[in-house]
Amino acid sequence: MIYADNAATTKISPAAKQAMLDCMEEYWGNPSSLYTLGQKASSCLLNARETIATCLGAAPGEIYFTSGGSESDNQAILSAAHSGAAKGKKHLISTGIEHHAVLRTLEHLGTKGFDITLLPVGTDGILDARDVAAAIRPDTALVTVMSSNNEIGTLQPIEEISRICREKGVIFHTDAVQSAGHLPVDVRKSGMDMLSLSAHKFHGPRGVGVLYVRKGIPLEPLIYGGSQERGKRAGTENLPAIAGMAAALKEATERLDSTIPYVTGLRNQLIEGLSEIPGSRLNGCVQSRLPGNVSFCFDNIEGEMLLLLLNQRGIAASSGSACASGSLEPSHVLRALGYSPELAKSALRLTLSESNTKEEIAEIIKNVREIVEYLRNI
Ligand SMILES: *Cc1c(COP(=O)(O)O)cnc(C)c1O
Predict the structure, then answer these.
(1) Which residue of 25, 222, 248, 296 is 20 to 30 Å from 285, comparing CA positions?
(2) How would you classify the pairing of strands 293-298 and 348-351?
(3) What is this structure's pTM?
């Protein structure tokens, strides 16, 4: 099988798996217990927190462990909305191309009296930071803009948006789930107040993530109970998953210097090959793009059929986001780029990792070309 759906999830790395096994076999106590076994677990938790903080340029006290990207996004947005509302600020700003973990949370707040502005992006899938500056009002509580898009891979100008929000005294959150472990992430340099990431998008385990919250930014719990995570996220820590995530992020971060050029090379090879298919178009900006993301639309093609036939030939790909497949709705991201519903439904997303090879890319190009021709002829 050729796996080209790394934006949906990634295969766990041997280092992450080993860290999880070590935890389950040796550090299986409850980190809150006072006896030695508990304290061993507690120091394992501390190590993981320090490792992750180092990878992100944060302090350990700014790291909160969660159940993944969706929970981190929910907590960041709900917390900022509620602390804003307490000061009479009920305006929230985001974009039309966010992940549903962000969009649905904002939609929910919209039914609770919050005013939501969803900024449009250009046809290249990139937000103009000046639009953020223009949209901020005296009652704006939060700006949330993803670092990189999960469907079309476009990178957003988050450093500029951070600067604008800082100047205007507005909290800035970014969903960095697709960036963490794939591009350098430095919260001090980039200046965001809150950042979400998820382990299973960078070869860590499923069901675990991080919410980074800058010191001094208020954080409200989403889950109430015990005093884990400094009272901000109750529940006995999922230590094996947390240790696995730390090992995966450390490994991914240390290898960026080699993985970024390698994966970018594969991506460019794939973009070139697919561009030669008549009636094909690349979705999103070609330069400002995640190293492993290739997203195409094809005139007069049903994306679902393309995926099924690729699967028959042993190629795992996706139409857009894994969460949206199975639904008949065309991608909200491609619609936001101005695509017709028909064109949006022809989308093919191929997301690569360092495990892919040049030979696999050539194989993908050959198969997509043949299937597109076949589907247009029937
Ligand atoms: C996968 C993903 C999420 C959700 O993360 P989970 O850990 O699966 O909940 C959120 N945002 C983006 C951009 C994603 O790609």
Answers:
(1) 248
(2) antiparallel
(3) 0.97
